[in-house]
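JOB MANIFEST
job_type = single_chain_structure
chain_count = 1
residues = 470
[input]
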Amino acid sequence: MTPQIAIIGFGIMVLFLLDRDPQVRTSKALWIPIAWLLIAASRNVSEWFQTAPRLDSGDPYLEGSPLDRYVLTGLLVLGVIALFMRRRQIWLLLRANTPILLYFLYCGVSILWSDYPDVSFKRWIRALGDLVMVLVVLSDPHPLTALKRLLARAGFVLLPLSVLLIRYYPDLGRAYSWDGTPGWTGVTTSKNLLGTICLIFGLASAWRFLKMYGGRKGTRRAGPLIAHGILLAMSLWFIWKANSVTSFACFLLAGGVMFVASRPELVRKPAFLHLFVAAELSVAFSALFLNIGSGLLENMGRDATLTGRTAIWSQVLNMSGNPMFGTGYETFWVGPRLEKMWTIYYNHVNQAHNGYLEVFLNLGWLGVGLLAVVLITGYRSVASAVRRQESAGGLRLAYFVVAVAYNFTEAAFKMMHPVWIAFLLAITVSPEPSVPEDLSPLDLRYIDSSTDCRPHVELAAGVGLRKGAN
């Protein structure tokens, strides 16, 4: 073991110890979604072992890697076993999230008209893995703590490892873009993906830091504040150095709504919250697509073509299949269509760089409509959590805004994408009653047997408390 690896390994251990909370225990099954997220937020296992097939043509996309298939299938099986052990609670979770289930069901049905049904089926199974992992987290006996530990443990591992690879193993941690520009990739495969994971984990640490720093005197713990302060600083530094414009803009948008959500006097009236979120998203949409505020784009290093994205959008629309049903789940970028795009774009583009367009290409207008239903019902759930000042309401709203805005210029409504997993964590609701996990023992003394601790819905990322007579 080299000294550099030892130092980074020691640093990771210190972060874990600083954030340790022995008073609340989560299920050991939580390590299953942690392992899944570590892979989704970095590289495939085959890429780590450098056994992934070469992508000189579109053929490797048809076969995939057997090693990745075995590892992910194993994690999926373990996740399903964990859910089976909690089947009563899972049934209630599924019933409470019908729009999400309908969307996944339609993705599976689209296999029937796909040009490559075997590829579509394999990718749909992976997509179900995302949902299974989210359900494992949210069905934990302590879902709020499980959410915190999922995001913290993955961040504590991936960001320090990115430092190690960038600084001491440049063959793994750095890469050249299609125009020859060098960039940092860290544990991921591109600078944009590095910015994405810093966006997700950085927002989680910002949320934890704000919650702890703004807590009552006597409840603040120096260890977690230091750990998440370090992780937040690392996230912002990586986003800046990687020059990931989309992630930086999304961080600003999400940070704004997170701050507003933390102020009870601002979110007490639903109209203000809705107007603030709509205003933020409208500004981003107008600058990108309506040529309003073009100076803002120029200041962020983007031109009117969004770095060539508009040309890609025009090209893929000319190649789209059935407008109502699409080409089948995750199979637009397969076979002749992919090879044609690679003859036009030598940087081997393999996504539409717009999540909504990507859904249209694969699932048609029907898929876009179902996604819209998921977004609308998801926002209602998140906004309700914020108004009730639930513990994770601010983070959930931040992740929702990230998903909506990020997909303006990147395709993230897809399997094993960190933004998609964070989005599912934000919008999935749980009807199970519970007492908030972040209450201190002193707070619990004021909850007696005559108090109804059941909220209208216990939202997946944090439990709300509403008092009332039985």
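[summary]
The radius of gyration is 22 Å.
The mean pLDDT is 84.
exit_status = 0
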